[in-house]
Q: What sequence folds into this?
């Protein structure tokens, strides 16, 4: 598996992976294309590829000193092999490279896998948002400081 930056011709495969990983919460192909249009500007999109196949990706948005992790996703058949960890480490490094002091992200409170992934990389829960995704579907916000240049060294 290797990491590389995303290209515009990745849009169809990225949109497929979005649907597989996020179902009715998935970004449409148009939204994926718009995200890529903001690269490098305020956005960074990294792809995990195996041969010609896209097996995962990560999306970071940088606004001032805070970077938002928008996505870390790995194809269902390729999980628990360290790909999510590598994608996340790369996003943290990129946030540091861009001079950010903090990373933030928001995710469903019941997303056990992602919460464990982020906690293992040093992010901690700073607040919860009740019913954020609809009745009974809470969100949590996780954060980590990047000061000290330790991003991705989990
Ligand atoms: C969350 C996700 C990206 C993890 O990807 P992955 O490639 O399977 O993760 P890794 O193999 O790198 O796992 C790294 C660590 O995360 C934690 N983790 C990952 N999946 C887990 C699971 N199902 N249950 C508990 N912990 C898990 C573990 O601590 C793991 O380390 P370990 O394997 O040494 O125990 C993947 O499950 C996914 O794509 N989920 C759907 C999309 C999503 O919800 N993304 C997050 C919100 S944007």
A:
């Amino acid at each position: 598996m290797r990491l590389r930056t995303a290209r515009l011709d990745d849009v169809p495969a990225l949109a497929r992976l979005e649907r597989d990983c996020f179902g009715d919460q998935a970004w449409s192909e148009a939204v994926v294309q718009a995200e890529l249009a903001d690269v490098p500007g305020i956005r960074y999109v990294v792809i995990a590829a195996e041969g010609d196949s896209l097996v995962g990706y990560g999306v970071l948005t940088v606004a001032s000193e805070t970077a938002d992790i928008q996505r870390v996703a790995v194809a269902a058949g390729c999980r628990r092999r360290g790909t999510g960890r590598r994608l996340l480490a790369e996003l943290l490094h990129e946030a540091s490279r861009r001079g950010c002091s903090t990373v933030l992200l928001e995710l469903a409170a019941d997303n056990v896998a992602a919460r464990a992934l982020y906690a293992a990389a040093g992010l901690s829960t700073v607040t919860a948002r009740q019913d954020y995704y609809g009745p009974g579907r809470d969100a949590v916000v996780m954060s980590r400081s990047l000061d000290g240049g330790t991003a991705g060294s989990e």
